[in-house]
C-alpha cells in the first residue's frame, strides 16, 4: 500500500470519527425538490436553502405549479439567497423542461441532468449520489478547500480537477460518503476562516497549518 492510499484512509477515518452521521443536509420529500434545492444552493448555505424551500414547496406543491409560477413571486420567496433573480428563473425553467423533456421524472444520467436549467456537473453529481445512490464525488467549495489544505489537490485546481484526483485515491464504494465527510469537515471544522487547527489530528500534513 503506497503512502497516498494510507493517507486517504487515515483522513477518511478521522472524518468519520468527527462526523459519524455525515449526510446531505438539504431538506426534500420528492426527487425534483432535491434537484431544485441543489440548484438554489450555489453561493449560499444549506440552512438558507432549507428556509426558502420550506416556503417554496409548501406554496408550489407540484412541478406544474412551479412551471406556471410568476418569476417575481419566486424571487420574493428566495431573495435571501445569492443571485436569486437568476435562480428564480432557473427554478421555473427547470420545472418546464423536466415536464416537457422527461415527463416530470428526474433522469439519473449526468448527460441528461446537465441539460436541465441550473444543473451543472457538480449539481448533477450531488443529485445522482443522493437520489439514485450512484457513486459520485461532487466537489463544492468545502471539498475543494479541504482537499487543497491536505495536499490531495492544488489550490488552483478546478473543481473538476479536484474531483478527478479524489476519485483516483478513494475507492468508488466510498465516493458518496467521502463527499459528505469532506463537506462536514469543511463546514464545521476546517472552516475557511478560523479553522480548528490546534485540535486537528491532520495538522502535521496540512499545508494551511504549516504555512501559518
Layout of secondary structure:
Layout: H1 3-18, H2 31-40, H3 46-59, H4 63-67, H5 71-78, H6 84-102, H7 110-113, H8 121-132, H9 141-149, H10 159-169, H11 175-188, H12 207-210
Report on the biggest sheet: none
Average pLDDT value?
A: 95
Strand content: under 5%
General shape: elongated
Flag low-confidence runs.
Answer: 1-5
| Topology pattern, helix = H, strand = E | HHHHHHHHHHHH
H/I helix tally: 12
Descriptive terms for the model:
212 residues, 59% helix, disordered N terminus, mainly alpha, single chain
Descriptive report:
By secondary structure, the protein is mainly α. The protein contains twelve helices and no strands. The longest helix is centred in the middle third of the chain and has 19 residues, at 84-102. The two termini are 31 Å apart. Mean pLDDT is 95; it is low at 1-5.
Amino acid at each position: 500500500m503506497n503512502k497516498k492510499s494510507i493517507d486517504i484512509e487515515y483522513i477518511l477515518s478521522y472524518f468519520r470519527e468527527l462526523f459519524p452521521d455525515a449526510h446531505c443536509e438539504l431538506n426534500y420529500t420528492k426527487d425534483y425538490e432535491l434537484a431544485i434545492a441543489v440548484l438554489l444552493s450555489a453561493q449560499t448555505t444549506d440552512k438558507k436553502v432549507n428556509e426558502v424551500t420550506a416556503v417554496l414547496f409548501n406554496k408550489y406543491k407540484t412541478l406544474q405549479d412551479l412551471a406556471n409560477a410568476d418569476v417575481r413571486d419566486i424571487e420574493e420567496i428566495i431573495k435571501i439567497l445569492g443571485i436569486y433573480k437568476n435562480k428564480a428563473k432557473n427554478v421555473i425553467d427547470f420545472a418546464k423542461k423536466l415536464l416537457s423533456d422527461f415527463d416530470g421524472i428526474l433522469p439519473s444520467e449526468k448527460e441528461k441532468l446537465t441539460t436541465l436549467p441550473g444543473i451543472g456537473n457538480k449539481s448533477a453529481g450531488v443529485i445522482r449520489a443522493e437520489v439514485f445512490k450512484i457513486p459520485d464525488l461532487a466537489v463544492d467549495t468545502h471539498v475543494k478547500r479541504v482537499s487543497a489544505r491536505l495536499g490531495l489537490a492544488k489550490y488552483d485546481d478546478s473543481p473538476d480537477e479536484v474531483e478527478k484526483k479524489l476519485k483516483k485515491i478513494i475507492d468508488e464504494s466510498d465516493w458518496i460518503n467521502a463527499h459528505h465527510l469532506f463537506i462536514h469537515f469543511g463546514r464545521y471544522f476546517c472552516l475557511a476562516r478560523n479553522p480548528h487547527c490546534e485540535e486537528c489530528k491532520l495538522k502535521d500534513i496540512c499545508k494551511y497549518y504549516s504555512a501559518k
